[in-house]
Q: What sequence folds into this?
C-alpha cells in the first residue's frame, strides 16, 4: 500500500511539473510574440476610449447614440463585483 501511495505521489508531482513547465513556456512564447508584433506593427496613436465614426459611413448619429446608451446601461447593470 505504501509503495502505491509513493508511486501516486511521484506521478502527481511529475504531472504537475509538466503542466507548470508547459504553462511557463506558453507565457514566454506569448510575450515574445507580443513584443515581435509590437516591434513590426506598432499601434497608431489614438485617443483613449474614443471611437471615430465618419459621417459618410451611412450610420445615423442617433443610432450610434442609442447603441452607446444601451452598452453603457448594460455595463452599469452587470458590473463585476
A:
Amino acid at each position: 500500500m505504501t509503495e502505491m501511495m509513493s508511486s501516486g505521489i511521484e506521478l502527481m508531482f511529475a504531472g504537475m511539473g509538466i503542466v507548470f513547465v508547459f504553462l511557463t513556456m506558453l507565457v514566454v512564447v506569448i510575450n515574445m510574440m507580443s513584443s515581435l508584433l509590437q516591434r513590426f506593427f506598432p499601434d497608431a496613436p489614438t485617443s483613449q476610449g474614443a471611437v471615430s465614426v465618419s459621417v459618410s459611413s451611412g450610420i445615423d448619429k442617433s443610432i450610434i447614440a442609442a447603441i452607446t446608451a444601451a452598452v453603457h446601461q448594460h455595463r452599469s447593470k452587470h458590473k463585476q463585483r
